[in-house]
Write a structure and sequence with these properties.
With 422 residues, this protein is an alpha+beta fold. Helices cover 37% and strands 21% of the residues. The protein has 2 domains: 249 residues, Bira Bifunctional Protein, Domain 2 (BirA Bifunctional Protein, domain 2), CATH 3.30.930.10; 92 residues, 3-Layer(aba) Sandwich (Rossmann fold), CATH 3.40.50.800. The strands form 3 sheets. Strands 1-5-6-11-10-9-7-8 form an 8-stranded mixed beta sheet. Strands 13-12-14-15-16 form a 5-stranded mixed beta sheet, sandwiched between helices. The chain has a 3-stranded antiparallel beta sheet with strand order 2-4-3. Helix 1 runs antiparallel to helix 5 and helix 5 runs parallel beside helix 9. The chain is elongated, with a radius of gyration of 28 Å. The two termini are 47 Å apart.
Amino acid sequence: MLTTRPRGTADILPGQVEKWQYIEAIAARVAKEYGYREVRTPIFEHTELFTRGVGEDTDIVEKEMYTFQDRGERSITLRPENTAAVVRAYLENSLYAGPQPVKLYYVGPMFRYDRPQAGRFRQFHQFGVELFGTNHPASDAEVMAMAMDFYGRLGLTGLELHVNSVGCPNCRPVVRESLLKFFEPVYDELCPNCQNRYRKNPLRLLDCKSERCAELSKTAPTTVDCLCGDCRTHFEQVQQYMDDLGVPYVLDNRLVRGLDYYTHTAFEIMASDIGAQSSIGAGGRYNGLIEAVGGAPAPGIGFALGLERIILSLDKRGYAPDLKPIPEVFLTVTGDTASREGFKLLASLRAAGISADMDYQGRSLKAQMKYAGKISARYVIIIGDAELQQGRIVLRDMSAGEQQEVALPDVVAAVTLGLGGE
């Protein structure tokens, strides 16, 4: 139907969008303080970017991507995540040739054909960062601390940061063989998804949500059991830096990520108050991704935090940002002359950076005042022909329930002073 939005999408309406703007403003502020600059990539990319970058055997590529052919018969995909796209932008625009490391952040929509549920949509939004050009374990700690700092500034406390190491190309084959050997005797008891993963991506067997598979994998070897010396040292140093920062975390040796490009550090942030889909953000190191996409080998690490789930968690906690009403000032006018003067005053208020509006429907003064109350305007300016003859208007403070007469040339200054004194 033309009046029904597609399943798995949402309209973000006035009254709701202010929360998004508030969160996005904090994201931009945190990113700037940590030295990140914004990047904006296309909503769609060549499909091969994701099949090579994310991994052909991942659930995202196999089941969840929105892929189509354009008029040039090229395979195009709406981005299901943004790390691969930012890597492409890093390479195509030769950002590697500038000062290193390169720190980039983004906020925007992603698309996955998934089963819609609370906090999970087919069009969803993420705040993410990508840090290219350093393998130092302190950078792993900084990225995780930055994510937790962002949540803290939103007022989201009581979150759990789960951390693991998923190894590197040197020790990953050891993990693979250990898992294949462990699960071979119980292969027939695995769920269909895990039977498919058994050969393609056995590491994901540790991440299955099926009760039977979870039970079978309780004593399975983990990535930490199989780490090579370099990976073990790197992970120990990451933990030391986290301890130095005083950021609490949980060592979770069963944590794996659903994307093939992760190496070394992997992490996930959990909120217990949003239901079964408790993850509100995740990330990790991906030292092989830039090479997989076609660039020279270079290390990288980042995170992506889901805005819908953040808002869901904030709503569950009854938290609402203290937002100014829009408009802050409403002009009520009675009479033709007052209407014209009010229209000019409206422009002066806006030029001073004050959100203002006025009546355009010819309503009575009583109806205009009632409307100003409904939209929660902080100030009401009352202009009538009689007041204009005296060169004065009435300025009413709606929150204090007080009013005063102000000379017409002094109105903008009086409102500015009042709003600045809040």
